[in-house]
Specification:
The complex is a heterodimer of chains A (about 300) and B (about 375).
Chain A (H helix, E strand, L loop, with lengths): L2 H32 L6 H19 L2 H22 L9 H23 L15 E5 L2 E4 H23 L1 H11 L1 H6 L4 H23 L9 H16 L4 H26 L5 H26 L10
Antiparallel strand pairs in A: 1-2
Chain B lengths: L1 H17 L5 E7 L6 H17 L3 E2 L2 E9 L4 H13 L5 E3 L4 H13 L3 E4 L5 H4 L7 E3 L6 H12 L4 E7 L2 H13 L3 E8 L7 H10 L3 E4 L4 H12 L8 E4 L5 H7 L7 E4 L8 H14 L5 H19 L7 H10 L9 E3 L5 E13 L2 E14 L11
Parallel strand pairs in B: 1-3, 1-4, 4-5, 5-6, 7-8, 7-9, 9-10, 10-11
Antiparallel strand pairs in B: 2-3, 11-13, 12-13, 13-14
Classes of the chains: A mainly alpha (about 300), B alpha/beta (about 375).
Chain lengths: ~300, ~375
């Protein structure tokens, strides 16, 4: 096992974690502050990717794709909040799960009607299409480094909004006690719409950034969504810091598990069994990790109102 | 009001009984929504094209095609199948894309006397121990395209191949199919999670294992993600990729982009196979649907043409089951892939080609490079004891 491979896999894990953080930050805001379980968060991810791919095909510019995807996803999110989700805040979580699951089906079919059943093409921008020799002997795709940078920027941006602005103060206050904030004359309805729009924008950003790596297709949000829920549960629901920590941990554990578990098992088992068992165990690792964390800290690693 | 309904009913009954022949009912269960719907849509469109070419008939007799969406869910496919058999009284079924769905639906349907002709899924069970006189596969046995790739990679002199497939039955079948004809030693066999879409860890492993070639089977969106990421990591120029035609099919190439250019893949069909049937199929498919036909479309079309040949043989009378079965076995139709006949287990004996992804007028597509197998059967035919 050589050193540069381990470094590269850790970097891969970090990058995967940052990707998850982009999704998880929006979801944890909505879940933690508005107490709304939004399964359709993955659909907003998909919409971000599709809008970016569409603009990319028209103009050939990834940057314009981003400029279309971010506000596009935010607007779709706000419209959905006003039309459908606003009525669900007072209902219990099961109703919310059912309604937002319905939204997933709705958005999947709508996407298929608008863009067709075939996957769309979205490529990395020319300036980031090369590789960087960040680790000797293992050229790393520049675009993946860009994802790490964007994720770090989003983390700082959210931290500043939540701790340093009036909006952030209101968000924190209404997460603690919605009624009192309303009684103090704050338009909580509008505040929630804004928070949801921000969450949608972050999901759209994640989708647009993931688009050049993945296949932009109907249903692409669902597989990411499950991992995202794992992330926010591990990190502590409603906590941005928790989402960041949870995402990086999940990313690194998942990647290292996939990369090294089969090789590790080959020390004890015959190669064919080790490959099979290793692959199955590696895909369970993060769930085992989640179970361990929850027995140790039932509210997650960094709970929002700790 | 009541009178008019009565009258209408009478008219309906009258026309039904006086019609020269009742249409042959064909039930199609396929994936039209959610992930993987592109495949089902292509099979349906290819099949429908054959019906449209005969103005609503197959083999000269009217047919009624009932298309239902299984959304890639086995339980849903099962429900549809029960409804098609009990309520709609279909005599022929087709359309299923995925092997796990085929295994839930097919054995029961053929036991109830329905003819099932598969346009895609070809699980080993149905080719071997679970073969049935009413089950036919017009596409391939699942292992076929992987076997062809194994042979080709072996012929090209590669000795250290890295193997990659999802951790599910068809993934394991694909690697065993490949190894059946590849004589070298695999450097590594890596199984990934089904539906995984980030392959950074596996790509780093490939780079560090230094193989002389990579064989992968990652159907649908998984393959799109993998090829793009492999290219982004700068490996495409260094270590050649090989895979079955599914990841390089017409419906997918547009989404992979130039990252797919030059990659060799295996397939039993391509649009440049030179025969009049194929030429007509490709031209009219393009004209009707305004896109190039895919492998799946060709399989849907061939399935319909095969059914047409058998309907013609029994004169549209589906009560002649033995004659219908015999006609299917003879496969007296001109396949768009060229030579085609059935083996004793009702699976194709056919030629398999290696194609290369090329760019034609800015559109990515495939051209045939060489033929690997001539009249190739499958590995399970010996296990089949047809009743």
């Amino acid at each position: 096992m050589d050193y540069s491979l381990v470094c590269e896999q850790v970097l891969n894990g970090l990058q995967f974690g940052v990707m998850l953080f982009l999704m998880a930050s929006g979801l944890t805001l909505v879940f933690g502050i508005m107490d709304l379980i939004n399964l359709a968060h993955g659909s907003l991810f998909m919409i971000g990717a599709y809008l970016c791919a569409m603009a990319f095909q028209k103009t050939g510019s990834f940057l314009i794709g981003l400029l279309v995807a971010l506000p596009g996803a935010a607007i779709v999110g706000i419209v959905v909040e006003v039309i459908a989700l606003r009525k669900l805040y007072a209902r219990d979580h099961l109703d919310q799960v059912l309604a937002t699951f319905g939204l997933i089906l709705f958005f999947n079919e709508l996407t298929k009607i608008i863009w067709g059943p075939r996957a769309l093409f979205l490529d990395v921008p020319r300036s980031l299409s090369g590789t960087v020799n960040i680790i000797p002997g293992a050229p790393y795709p520049a675009f993946r480094l860009a994802i790490i940078v964007v994720g770090a920027a989003v983390a700082i941006f959210l931290y500043l909004i939540i701790t340093r602005t009036r909006l952030g103060m209101l968000i924190r206050a209404s997460a603690t006690n919605r009624e009192i904030v309303g009684a103090l004359g704050i338009n909580v309805k509008l505040l929630y719409t804004l928070v949801f729009g921000l969450g949608a924008l972050l999901a759209g950003l994640a989708g647009a950034m993931a688009g050049p790596l993945l296949s932009v297709e109907v249903g692409m949000g669902e597989s990411v969504l499950i991992l995202t829920f794992v992330v926010i549960v591990i990190g502590g629901i409603g906590s941005i810091r928790g989402a960041l920590l949870g995402a990086v941990l999940v990313g690194v554990i998942d990647t290292l598990g996939r990369a090294f578990l089969p090789a590790f098992l080959k020390l004890f088992l015959d190669p064919a069994t080790a490959d099979g068992v290793g692959a199955s165990t590696a895909s369970m690792m993060i769930y085992i990790f989640m179970a361990v964390i929850l027995t140790w800290k039932p509210k997650g690693l960094l709970p929002a109102h700790g | 009001m009541k009178q008019s309904i009565l009258l209408l009913t009478a008219v309906v009954f009258l026309t039904a009984s006086t019609a020269a022949a009742e249409p042959v009912k064909i039930g199609m269960i396929t994936t039209l929504s959610g992930g993987g719907s592109g495949l089902g849509i292509d099979v349906r469109d290819g099949f429908q094209l054959a019906i449209d070419q005969e103005n609503g008939k197959l083999g000269g007799y009217p047919v009624e095609l009932i298309v239902q969406d299984d959304a890639r869910k086995p339980d849903k496919a099962k429900q549809i199948s029960d409804r098609l058999i009990k309520k709609d009284n279909v005599s022929i079924m087709t359309g299923i894309i995925w092997s796990n769905l085929a295994l839930t639906v097919v054995p029961k349907a053929v036991d109830e006397g329905i003819f099932y002709i598969s346009p895609n899924a070809g699980p080993s069970l149905l080719a071997g121990k679970g073969c049935h006189e009413n089950y036919f596969n017009a596409a391939w046995q699942n292992d076929n395209l992987h076997e062809a790739m194994g042979q080709y990679v072996n012929d090209q002199g590669y000795k250290k191949v890295f193997l990659l497939a999802p951790n599910y039955p068809a993934g394991k079948d694909s690697l065993s199919g490949f190894k059946r004809f590849y004589k070298g030693e695999p450097v590594a066999e890596v199984y990934t999670k089904l539906g995984q879409n980030d392959y950074a860890a596996e790509i780093a492993e490939i780079r560090s294992a230094k193989p002389d070639a990579v064989f992968f089977f990652l159907p649908g969106g998984m393959g799109i993600s993998f090829i793009k990421q492999y290219n982004q990591a700068g490996l495409k120029g260094e270590i050649p990729l090989f895979g079955p035609g599914f990841s390089f099919d017409q419906g997918i190439l547009g989404a992979v982009g130039e990252a797919a250019l030059g990659i060799k893949n295996s397939s039993q069909w391509n649009k440049d196979i030179d025969n009049p049937a194929n030429k007509r199929f490709v031209d009219e498919f393009k004209k009707t649907y305004d896109r190039l036909p895919s492998l799946y479309a060709s399989q849907g079309y061939d399935t319909a043409r095969l059914i047409a040949s058998a309907i013609k043989a029994v004169g549209g009378d589906m009560s002649k089951k033995d004659a219908f079965r015999k006609a299917l076995r003879e496969a007296d139709f001109i396949s768009v892939r060229g030579a085609f006949k059935f083996g004793p287990n009702h699976h194709p004996v056919q030629d398999i080609y290696i194609r290369e992804v090329v760019s034609e007028d800015g559109v990515l597509t495939n051209k045939i490079v060489t033929k690997v197998f001539t009249s190739h059967s499958d590995a399970y035919v010996g296990e089949c004891e047809m009743k």
